Every structure is written in C-alpha cells, then in structure tokens.
Amino acid sequence: MDRKDIRYTNYIQILKEELRPAMGCTEPIAIAYAAAKAAAVLGETPDRILAEVSGNIIKNVKSVVVPHTGGLRGIQAAAAAGAVAGDADAELEVISNVTPQQIEEIGKYLETADIEVRHVDNGHIFDIIITVCKGDNEASVRIVDFHTNIVLIRKNGEVILEREVVSIDDGLTDRECLSIEGIVDFADSVDLDDVRETIERQISYNMAIAEEGLRGNYGANIGSVLLASHPEDITYRMRAYAAAASDARMNGCELPVVINSGSGNQGITSSVPVVIYAQCNNKTHDEMLRALVVSNLVTIHLKTGIGRLSAYCGAVSAGCGAGAGVAYLQGGRNEAIAHTVVNAIAIDSGIVCDGAKASCAAKIASAVDAGIMGIAMYNKGNEFFGGDGIVKKGVESTIKTVGKLARRGMKQTDEEIIRLMLED
C-alpha cells in the first residue's frame, strides 16, 4: 500500500484511536471517569451520587472488581472511586494513581454517601449519566456510545458543554475503508515507525498483565489451569497467557491494559496469543509487529459492524483477529487469513456476552482456540463454505452478516440477559 493511499493514513489513525491504555474493565472505568469529571465540575467531594445507566452498562459492571478499591465491585464502587480519588484528565486511567489512603477513603465514603443506581433506556446501548450533589449544588456528566464521549456537562442547571449525539462513530476515522485485503497490504508495506509506539505499548502492557495473571491468584485462574495441563503445548500457552491476563483484569489487578474497540479483553485477546506464537517460533520483532497490525485491524474490522456492546461476545472477534495474526506469521496472506477468519467465525459465533466477570477468561481461551483451529483447517485444505449456517461466500460478506446478527438479531437476547441479571 502506497503511503499516499488515503487508507494508509486512515489505518494508522484507526490503530491510534482504538489501541488506548485503560486501567481496569472499561465500563466501570467509564463510570469512574464520569464521576471524577462531575466532582471536578462541582468543585468538592459530593455526598450524594445518582448513577443513571443503560442495561449494557449494568451488565458489564455488576460483577467485575474495580481496581484500586480494595476489591470492591459494581457501579457504586466505580462511582465512589471516581468521585473521591479520580483524575478526570487521565480519562480511562482515571483511577490509576489512587493511593492506599484514598482506597480507605473510598471504603468509608461508600458507608456514608447516598449512591443511587437507576436503569434507564434513552435509546443508547452505552449511556452513563452521573449526577453529583453537595448541599444545594449539583453537577452532571453524560457519556454516550463510547467510553470517553462526554456529550453533556451541567452545573446547577447551567449547561457548560453540550454536543449533539449523532453516531457512535462520530469524530472517529471512517471504518468503511477496512477490508481483509487492505489490512494485509497495509501490514506488508507500513513503515513500522508509523505504528511502533502504539503497538509496542500494547505488547508491554498486555504481556505484563498476562504474566501477573499467571503469578497471582485471580478469579477462577483459567490461565494457570490451562498452562499446568499442557505446559509444553504452544497452543495451550497462547490460550493460557491470554486467559491469565483476563483473570487478572477482571478481578482487580492494578495494571493497565491496551484496549481494542473499547475493550481490554479484546485488546488482550488480539495481542497476547500473537506475541506468544512469535516468541515461541523465533520470529523477528518486526515480523511480530506486522502480525499485530493484522490482528488488531481484523478485530476492529469485525467489531465495526457489531458495535461496542452487544449480546455477542467481543472475544470472538478478537480471537479471529489473533488467528489472522498467527496465520500472517506463518506466511499466510489474503487467502489464508480470509479462510482463517471465516472458519473461526463459523466455530465460535454462538458465545453470548453476559457481562464482565471471571468467566470472560474462559471465553477468551475458547475464542483463541477457534482462531487456532481456523488456521489448522486452512493448512489442511479444509474450510466452511457459503451456506454453512451464517457463513456467506467471501470473507467480507461473512463479516457483514456477523455484524447484522450481533447488532440486530441478538438485540432481544441482550435484553433478556440484562433482565435475568437484574433479577437477583
């Protein structure tokens, strides 16, 4: 791909937009970010907080540990952490520098403050409205559609900032330029210095939390279980390291990750298996960087049609991305990567998202396994054909079909999952 090609610049910008650092699961962090921003606008620590959130926010915050809170879970903990100790200027790293003293203050604050949570449906899957109060003063912040997209700031009835909510992708680089063929062409030709900082940070952050997940005792320890069962098998190692990173992240580890498409688990899944494969097969560092360009962009391409939040598990798309990255490291290009993606989609598309929690690590392991199987099938001359279930003729048609399935077809499934989760 020539550097003068508009896609070249767009692909670089897309990677920069999507591969961002975040501390903890991104939905509770978005709540903490909104609360920190609202408290900053208020100008003092509030004694009352109202968190009005959409169903998918409830789903993805209910069961996950909020880092730097001493093991607390849920919306109230995330809002309290942001209001008491958050740095709004740090956005998705809003609570990355919380001190031990502040952790104690968060716990005490939860005992004394009035924090109310309401389920709202304003027509947006991703919707957070945090209102903080102290005496007669109040401030509100609203985030819509993605984690840092503040569309409203108000204090004592006065609007400080208001932006029209046009589209989830408003202000972002147009993803329509993405295609498997274009991604492979870009990965082959990109000057690595144009993406090095972005990709190197992902390697550093996500491998660090994977290693911590294997050292520590987090959640159900899926990564440790996998690695112990087959320590010499590279495919188990790929799955184990990715799962271990999620073990740690879902269960309070205070290390950042680099996300993909708004999700730390997707950032982990699209990167860690590719790094492990490259290391175990003595690939050069530059080869690994190019493969990570493939895996990340394939993940983003798949997620574009699905949307940020869905009943369709995001790890599935990232597992397809990881499989594409490994296929690239094996020397595969358009045909191999296209077949790998289609095969993986056909294997794992039935996994539903029932929120962020410890079992995400097991779903990640399954998604990575589907990517690996997709490669193995292609290498042996086997594939799923158009007409096999949701598989269509051609990888781009299949990707579009998955987007329709996840965004439209699984809407009622998502609503039922949220209803079931709210029952208890």
Throw out a few tags for this protein.
424 residues, alpha+beta, 60s Ribosomal Protein L30, Chain: A, 2 domains, 6-stranded mixed beta sheet, two-stranded antiparallel sheet
H-E order: HEHEHHHEEEEEHHHHEHHHHHHHH
Compute the CA-based radius of gyration. Answer: 21 Å
Instruction: Give me the side-by-side strand order of the main sheet.
Output: 3-2-4-5-6-7
How large is the share of residues in beta strands?
Answer: 5-15%
- The number of helical runs is 17
Globally, the shape reads globular
Number of structurally distinct domains: 2
Distance between the termini: 53 Å
What share of the residues lie within helices?
40-55%
Low-confidence segments, given as residue ranges, are none
Major sheet summary line:
6 strands, mixed
Look at the structure and give the mean pLDDT.
93
Which class of secondary structure composition applies to the elements?
alpha+beta
Oligomer: single chain
Number of strands: 8
